[in-house]
Every structure is written in structure tokens, then in C-alpha cells.
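retry 2 of 3: previous attempt timed out while embedding adenosine-5'-triphosphate. Reduced batch size to 1 and resubmitted. Inputs unchanged:
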Amino acid sequence: MLDATPTPDAQVETLLEVNNIEVIYNSVILVLKGVSLKVPKGGITALLGGNGAGKTTTLKAVSNLLHSERGEVTKGSIKYRNEPVHSSDPAEMVKRGVVQVMEGRHCFEHLTIEENLLTGAYTRSDGKAAIARDLEMVYDYFPRLRERRKSQAGYTSGGEQQMCAIGRALMSRPETILLDEPSMGLAPQLVEQIFEIVKSVNENEGVTFLLAEQNTNVALRFAHYGYILESGRVVMDGPAADLRENQDVKEFYLGMSDEGRKSFRDVRSYRRRKRWLS
Ligand SMILES: Nc1ncnc2c1ncn2[C@@H]1O[C@H](COP(=O)(O)OP(=O)(O)OP(=O)(O)O)[C@@H](O)[C@H]1O
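retry 2 succeeded.
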């Protein structure tokens, strides 16, 4: 897939740098315990891990969406294009070109698909013609949305709503998209289709992606670089091709081992035992 790649170590500009952040909810619940990562310009970086590992929290820390959930970055720093951003607000991040596609799609149910897409262009000031061109660009990536453009979003399928959410983000002409769990609740074929589109948008439009995903298998096939989170800590990172071949990743996250498939629950207790014993 995408193995000739921008990685944090290569000679490419780092757009986003998260440095040793700690996040606490409700003043007491420590969720991120020193997460660091780098997102190179033009790459697809995956943030992997199971339920509750801290993937969404990391994305929300970057886009400054934690405050509304009584969450706070209490240590560390976040820089975008080398400027500190952890105390700016969500609108400021959008102005900088960073847009988050939330988990669970979040389309405006009562608006049509096209109206939803146009809300993504709300902050733009480059004129109707440019917006109309981008609408066509989104429809070219997502022909299904062109067919459903007049349909009320609430009555479209989960896959169409996911496409609409990504399309809406594209309408803001972002430099970076933070994409939370694009595979959630979708059939495998559709997941594959959505990741193919993410790959084309990355290659053709140069949009940088940081995507949070539980589906390690598909994410590591499309991403260039991956970070694996467990209980609020990065436990492993590397080029996606290396992670795919890593024995621990195969065993713990891809469900492949010499003894056959392992469930994620087995894997977690196994890993805990392994840590206790080491
Ligand atoms: N608003 C909140 N208040 C308190 N705790 C929270 C809040 N949001 C998340 N958490 C807790 O923080 C931890 C990390 O959650 P987060 O949603 O970041 O994980 P995740 O890796 O994205 O998991 P999932 O894939 O299930 O969404 C979980 O234990 C969760 O219960």
C-alpha cells in the first residue's frame, strides 16, 4: 500500500507535535499519562488501541474540544507548525487548517447531504465559485453522496453519513483532518472503500491525516506510521509496514499467532501477565 512514506524521522515537515501530554477529566480522572506523537505533513498517521485506550481523548486534546467535556491538558505541550496551540480554542484550530471528524459521524440529521457539506464551507471567504468547485470535488471522491445530495442526512445509511462527515471536513479546505474511528459500525467492504478514499484524498489533495482506529488491520494497511496506545500511554510506534510485521502486534492487535487467533480480551490479560513477569 503506502510504504514509500512520510514518517516522523524522514526529512519532512512535522505539522503536529504532541509532547508528553497528560489529560485529566473532571479534575480527577487521569486518562492520558504522557502521550507523545508527531504527525508529518502529507502523511497518514494512525493512532491505534482498544476501547478506552485514549485515542479520542488525544484527538480532542489536539482540536481543543476537551473543555466541553470537563477535560483538561494538565501537562505537556501541543504544537502545530511549531506554534503552541493547547490553549487556543476549537475555532482557532479550524482557522489553522485542523478539522476533526468526530466518532459516530455527527451529521445534521434534518439537513440534506448537500446542505451538510456546505456547512463545512461556512468559514471560507474565497467565494461561491470556489465552494461550488470543491463541492464537485467531494462528489467526485464520494459518488454516492452525489446520488444522495437531496436526501435528508438522518435517513441515509451509516456509511453515507460517514462519507458526508468526511466530505464536510474537506469542504473547509483543511490541511489536516483528525479522523475518529472511521470504521465504526460499518461493514468490512464499506470500511475498505472509505479508507481507499482517505488514501486518494491524501495523495491527490495532500491532506494530512491523524486517524484513531480500533481496526488495526485496516489502519495499518493504509497508514504510513502508527502509534499504539494502551491505558493512556504509547506502548509502541513505528512505520506501518514494520508494525504489520511485528510479532507482538500480530499477536496482540491483529489476532494472529502460532496458537491461532487471540481475542483482544485474552491479549490484554496476557500482556498484563507478561508485564508482571518481566
Ligand atoms: N468526558 C469524560 N469524562 C470522564 N472520563 C472520560 C470522558 N471521556 C472519556 N473518558 C474516559 O477516558 C478513557 C479514554 O477514553 P477515549 O474515548 O479517549 O478512548 P478511545 O481509545 O477513543 O476508546 P473508544 O475507541 O472506545 O472510543 C476511558 O476510560 C473513558 O471512560
